[in-house]
Amino acid sequence: MKILSLGAGGFIGSHLTHRLLTEGHTVTAVDIETDKVTEFLGHPNLTFLQLDIRSPEWDLDSMVRDSDLVIDLIAYANPGLYLRIPLEVFRLNFIENLKIAEACVRHGKRLIQFSTCEVYGRTAASLKNAGLTDPEDPIHATFSEDTSEYILGPVSKHRWIYSCAKQLLERVLHAYGIEMGFNYTIIRPFNFIGPKIDFLLHEKEGIPRVFSFFMDALLNGTQMKLVNGGSNRRCYTYIDDAVECSWRIVENPGGVCDRQILNIGSPANEISIRQMAELMREIYAEKFRDPAVPLPEIVDVPAEEFYGQGYDDSDRRIPDITKARTLLGWEPKWGVRDILETTMRYYVSSFRKNG
Ligand code: NAD
Ligand code: UGA
Questions:
Q1: What does the alpha-carbon distance between residue 56 and residue 112 come to, in Å, rounded to a whole number?
Q2: Which of 82, 120, 162, 347 is catalytic?
Q3: pLDDT in tens, 91-131
Q4: For this structure, is 184 an active site residue?
Q5: Ligand 2 atom 26, closest CA
Q6: Using CA atoms, how far apart are residues 152 and 169, in angstroms rounded to an integer?
Q7: Considering all CA atoms of the chain, what is the largest pairwise distance in Å, rounded to the nearest integer?
Q8: Any atom of ligand 2 within 6 Å of the Cβ of 167
Q9: Is the whole model's pTM more than 0.85, yes or no?
Q10: Which atom of ligand 2 lies closest to the CA of 82?
């Protein structure tokens, strides 16, 4: 197949594009950045266009027309950005992505759209006076693609602009499916993690995801900061498991993923952010410690101090992966300790190699 992979230079995009090439596909890849794809930039079946899709030199229509399948991973995907540049988050994650989807509609091409588990928002257990008999029951935090309700905070908590932009895009794709027979598959990732997830703080300006904050603190002996006490929970999913499932969605045997939304995540890997900080510190002390650098302390920080005004958070999110299991026979294999150790090994070794 000739695949157009947009956002191919990012964390998920770099791993998935590598897999597509390994499977013998021809890929046209687009991204502003190339640093995560340097090892396969010269691949004979890869054309890499380093550009901003908002620039006039980008010829979306002919790119889509010449492809058999379009995969769209482009987005601002780090919560720090939802707080700092909410308008840009809306423009890129909705308006620019909509242009890509509409080009697919015009040319009758299948689109795989990366959305997010953030569309689900918060849990019923997080609401005041919810009156649940057992708020800790995982049933209240387990999200299913086609039946779960979405609970988001008020407009003043503008973190949710990311979730809303992605949700609106999903709804528009669905509507194109109903009215024009458009063929799409929506993927909702649940906290993928692995090598190349993000830059480390000392390498680049910006606000990466939590793993990189903690990794940077371990390497440099600075504080590991728990936003609002680190009580919120995530289900971490190893990138190899995620790419395997995404690959099966690309293959789409018998059209099982046509006009479907699929969660990709590891329901057994639930961990609070506090537990994650402690586990990373324990693994680091056991496997990677540089005796010259002190182990970091773990401290609590209010969200306003860490992110600024407008922050809110998903308290808990567990993927229901029945659809991925039954449609694709997929099962995540990696447990949370192994995920963290393997990802940490990658960052420790590149940190020490680069001095
Ligand atoms: P990422 O930031 O690593 O990748 C996004 C890529 O898009 C980056 O390489 C970036 O350079 C590129 N990009 C951004 N703006 C661009 C532009 N104007 N022109 C060209 N390229 C541009 O993020 P990721 O973690 O790989 O996420 C990929 C997709 O999956 C995103 O849509 C994200 O919202 C979604 N997602 C990811 C996760 C996760 O666990 N990583 C979870 C939920 C949703
Ligand atoms: C992120 C992004 O929204 C998206 O990329 C995506 O939709 C989602 O992950 C996903 O991967 O599924 P989130 O999990 O909130 O969402 O992102 P992180 O920045 O990694 O934050 C996780 C938790 O750690 C949050 O509760 C945050 O407040 C906390 N945190 C973050 C800390 O306690 N300390 C830090 O130093 C950084």
A1: 24
A2: 162
A3: 999 999 999 999 999 999 999 999 999 999 999 999 988 89
A4: no
A5: 232
A6: 16
A7: 64
A8: no
A9: yes
A10: 3
Q: What tens digit of pLDDT does each residue of 20-73 get?
A: 999 999 999 999 999 999 999 999 999 999 999 999 989 999 999 999 999 999
- Please identify, by atom number, the ligand 2 atom nearest to the C-alpha of residue 226: 33
How remote is the CA of residue 273 from the centroid of ligand 2, in Å? 9
Among 93, 200, 209, residue to substitute to test ligand 2 (most atoms within 8 Å of Cβ): 209
- What token pair was written down for 43? 């691949």
Please give the Cα distance from 248 to 257 (Å, whole number).
9
Which ligand has an atom closest to residue 76 CA?
Answer: 1
Residue 79 alpha carbon, nearest atom of ligand 2: 3
How many residues make up the chain in this entry?
A: 355
Give the CATH fold of the 75-354 domain. Rossmann fold (3.40.50)
Place of tokens 């998920």: 12
The token pair at 125 is 């257990």
